[in-house]
Every structure is written in C-alpha cells, then in structure tokens.
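Q: what does this look like with heme C bound?
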Amino acid sequence: MKYIWRLLPISFILLLSGCGVENLSALDPQGPVAEMQYSLIQLSLYIMIFVLVVVFAIYIFVIVRFRERPGDTHIPKQVHGNRTLEIIWTTIPILLLLMLAIPNVMDTFTLADMSVDGGVEDGEEIDHVRVEVTAHQFWWEFEYPDLDVVAGQDMYIPTDTRILIELQSSDVQHSFWVPALAGKQDNVPGITNEMWLEAPEEGVFMGKCTELCGPSHWLMDFKVIAVDPDTFDTWATNMAEPPAHLAEPEGQVAVDGRGVFEESCISCHAVGDEGGNIGPDLTNFGEREVIAGYLDYDMDNLEAWLRDTQDLKPGNEMPSFNEEAINAEEMDALLEYLDSLKILEE
Ligand code: HEC
Ligand SMILES: [Cu+2]
C-alpha cells in the first residue's frame, strides 16, 4: 500500500499510450518523423519542468521567509524596480524560448520538405513513393499515382522509403493520424496538405481520423502496413493488374458470389479495374485484418456488416442488405467470393 501512489503516473502513461493497443502511441515513436516530433515533445516538457521547479521553489521560499511573524508589526522594506532582477527575468525566458524555437523551426522546415533530392553531391533521388490520401465519411482511400494503384482502408508502404503524402477530403474535414509514425495533419475539402513519413521496420501501424467528422467519426480507423520493398512491389503490381482469379473466381460458390457482387455491389466497389469508387476498393479485401476499419475480420462479422451496415457505422454511404435483397444462399456465395480476394498469398 505504501507505494500505491506510483500507480498514478503508470495509469497516466497507459492512458496516453492507448492502453496497450499495438503501435498506436506517439510516445513509442518509430521512424524519423515521429522521433523528431517526440524529441520536440521531450524538450518542451523538460523546459516546462525546469520552469515549474524554479518558480515553485522561489515561491515557497518567499512564503516561508517573508511571512508575517507573531508580534512583528513593522512594514517590510518596499521595493519598486530592481534592474538586475528585471534583466535576469527577462533574459532567462528569452533564452528558454530560443531553446524551444530553434529546433522547432528547423524541424518544421525538415518536415515540410517534400523534395526527394538526395543532396547536391550525389544528385540521386531519395527512394520514395507518393500516396494521395482521400478521406471519406467514414473510410480512407489511398491512391498511388505513380503506380496506378487505388487501395481502401489499408495503406501499404515499403520500409525505409520516404512516403510523400498528399491529403485531401471528398466531403467534410478529417484528420490523418498515425501516432507511431507521424503527427496529425488535416484533410480539408478543396485544399491539399502535404506531409511525409518513413517506417524503418515492417509492422502494422494503427491510424485514426482525429477531426470530428460525423456520427461514425470514432470508427474511422485505418492501418498503415509497412512491408519490405520486394513484398511492396508484388503488392503494387498485383493491385494494378490483379491476378485473373479475382475477376473469374474458381469453384461454383465463388463464381455465384461474383455474380451477386456484380449485381449489388460493383456500382460502388471496385475489384481490379472494374467497379465504382463510392466505397473502398476491395481488390485485396481478403487480406484485411479488420472490416470497415474496426470489426475483426471473420465471416460472421462480414455478414453482419452487409446486413446491418447502417447500425454498425451509422451515417455511412453503404446501404444495408436484408434477406429480400440477398438471400441466405447468395450471402454464403458472396462471403466466399469476398474472402477469396487476395493478391499477396498463393
Ligand atoms: C451505394 C454504394 C455501396 C454499395 C451498393 C455497396 N457498398 Fe459496400 N461500402 C460502401 C461504402 C461507402 C463503404 C465504406 C463504409 C465506411 O467504412 O464508412 C463500404 C464498405 C464496405 C466494406 C468494408 C470495406 C473494408 O475495406 O473494410 C465491404 C466488405 C463492403 N462494403 C462490401 C459490399 C458488398 C459485398 C456490397 C454488395 C452486396 C456492397 N458493399 C454494396 C458503399 C457501397
Ligand atoms: Cu473523419
């Protein structure tokens, strides 16, 4: 019981770190951008602690030293202006502000630098991939203009590569945040914001919308999936030109499923280069870890999503499909087809 107070800072850290969800913490930075930002946070924290300690120490000293004592009624010496003191307490804050400002301004320029020049000396380009991120109520679209790829919900990136990101929105204001990789930036309709990030190691990084954007804002999650450059190349090639089995699936159930999909879904969802873009591209849907950003990937949840999408994510653009629209048999075939949409395995 004696050390119970220690739980206080621990619980605070847990709170800040998203209660142990993997790779969702700005306090566990990965990659150069997040590390830069984390060290700025640390620097300002240390300066604030320094100011706090000094000010409180002086304050307590003054209270104790100059308090009214019993029987002492004399008025203490009244002081107006003290040049030395004035100079000290003007200079110290200026120095502290400079200590904050210089690294902040320098890092701001580094973070805003979207050029890929490897420097004057070698004249080579930095390895990079461009991604246009469009936020929709309540999902994310990732377009790779140089690779002819459009992906939904999962943003695949190669490790150790500069990812140059352009942020846009198709409706209201959203905000793109992958805490472990980079600080947030807004997706504003009509404006393109830019940022970059790098992931040094493979991993799955949680992303969130951090701008209240409607009734299902809190479910607008996505993932950044960092894979080695070879895997990324395979992914990009297969996304751009999907393997034949996606359009003409094998097995009767999968074939029927494709039929249902073409009837009810393809106006909004693309598989390969066929289909609409009102909803996420589903070319690699079978490789998602979650459905619609937050439901565990399994067939029960997928069926629930198709039947009750409006209950599961109120206000999203997809209609719910009841038994009249898609009967039980068709549903089974559709689920099997959706689950077969894989481009990395096999
Ligand atoms: C009117 C357009 C529209 C139609 C028709 C439609 N969807 Fe959707 N769908 C969407 C939108 C928009 C989303 C994104 C919802 C969100 O997360 O906000 C979505 C999301 C999904 C998701 C989750 C995607 C992911 O990346 O996790 C699946 C799976 C899906 N739809 C399957 C279907 C199937 C199967 C059909 C046909 C039975 C269908 N949809 C019909 C618009 C549509
Ligand atoms: Cu949003």
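The CA atoms of residues 164 and 264 lie 36 Å apart. Residues 135, 174, 209, 211, 213, 217, 220 surround copper (II) ion (ligand 2) (CB under 6 Å).
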